[in-house]
Amino acid sequence: MTKCPICSSPLSNDYYQKDTFWISCLRCGNCFITRSVRNMLEGGAFNLSETQIVNISGWIRENQGTDIDLTKEKLYSLKTLKTLTVSEKADKILIYFSKLFPVAGASLILGFNKVGEILNTINHQSFPENKDDPFMKMFNYNAPILLPIISLGRIINTDEFIYIIEVYLRKEKGYLSNSPQKITPAGWTYLESLRQANPESKKAFVAMWFDPEMEKVYDNFINKAIENSGFEPIQIGRKEHNNDINDEIIGEIRNCKFVVADFTGNRRGVYYEAGFAYGQNIEVIHSCHEDQLKDVHFDINHRNIIKWSDGEDLYNKLLKRIKATIA
Ligand SMILES: [Zn+2]
Fold first, then answer.
1. What is the 163 CA–ligand 1 centroid distance (Å)?
2. Mind listing the pLDDT tens digit for each residue in 92-127?
3. Ligand 1: distance of its center to the CA of 176 in Å?
4. Would you state the pLDDT for residue 171?
5. What is the mean pLDDT of each run of 10 residues along the chain (327 residues)?
6. What is the pTM of this model?
7. Ligand 1 centroid, distance to 247 Cα (angstroms)
8. Residues, CB-to-ion distance under 5 Å, ligand 1
9. How far is the CA of 88 from the centre of ligand 1 (A)?
10. How many Å lie between the centroid of ligand 1 and the Cα of residue 4?
11. Residue 275 C-alpha to ligand 1 middle, in angstroms?
């Protein structure tokens, strides 16, 4: 059984073409990785700690649906992802439950009592050879459901998993009930408070550098990608602002469904606008010209930034990203 170079869970797919692997991990999900980076990972060259492994796995899982390219630079950047707090981990798990079982009153049938056995086997790589082994039957049935939860919650071990489900979400917060296990009314109310802002809005705010070359990119490509995915692009005034964002911009961002933030030119205003959107629970799609990616600020570097070479390339990637994550 081949294992994931990041988290060591079994791979369900491992496909190789032109020096790049497309791997599909039961825990992390799908991503592209070059042979040399995979060799580096397997040789321990990145020296990933237990926490870095769960952070990177969780990041890959969260960005499923978009193209993930694990380059050497990307991995060094992901190594510095911040560790989530207990409540942040619990939020991610609760949101995931509500997506798996969106109908209120549904019992969460997830085989939680198998987590220990599954994680232990992965950590010790002690898989039985025989596919008909009862453990493998249990593993093949439960791991595809449980491992994404472990990944999204950035769970280190069984104790942490049980703590977050039983002690935090059930006993302390009352968001889950026991036998049958369901999301409680308090849990649903809390989930509503976490919901993305403006689900019905058709507006997309564009934050970018108003340089003459970039305005051409906006007019011919960014604008069209947004329109062709069924949204209305909003771009304010085309004037620079360096310190804070004004009321008009705040109002527009508050009313939009998502923000496209292009970091080409590394303008401070773009960081402010993206930052304001994060605070409003508004989705932000990040992009940057490939030559300027190295200048992008550390915090943004952890997002799955669309790296583009020319307007046409940006158009195609942006359209694909909007359709995958917003529309
Ligand atoms: Zn993995």
1. 23
2. 999 999 999 999 999 998 889 999 999 999 988 888
3. 28
4. 96
5. 93 90 96 95 94 97 90 91 95 95 92 92 86 88 94 96 96 94 96 86 94 93 96 77 70 93 92 91 94 86 90 96 89
6. 0.85
7. 44
8. 4, 6-7, 9, 25, 27-28
9. 21
10. 5
11. 30
Closest listed residue to residue 253, CA positions, set 272, 230, 238, 273: 273
What is the structure's pLDDT at 18? 87
Ligand 1 centroid – CA 73 distance (Å): 18
pLDDT in the model for residue 180: 87
What is the C-alpha separation between 61 and 126, in angstroms, rounded?
Answer: 24
For residues 307-321, one letter each, b for 16 or more C-beta atoms within 10 angstroms of the residue's C-beta and e for the rest, the string is bbeebeebbebbbbb
- All domains of the chain, ordered by start, with CATH? 11-78 (no CATH), 86-194 (no CATH), 203-325 (3.40.50.10140)
pLDDT score recorded for residue 245 = 66
Centroid of ligand 1 to alpha carbon of 150 (angstroms): 11
Query: Which residues are 283's β-sheet partners?
Result: 258
**Residue 313 pLDDT:** 97
Handedness of CA 42, 57, 290, 21 (dihedral sign): positive
> From the CA of 49, how far away is ligand 1's center (Å)?
14
| pLDDT tens per residue, range 3-15 | 999 999 999 988 9
- CB–CB of 11/27 below 8 Å? no
The pLDDT of residue 129 = 82
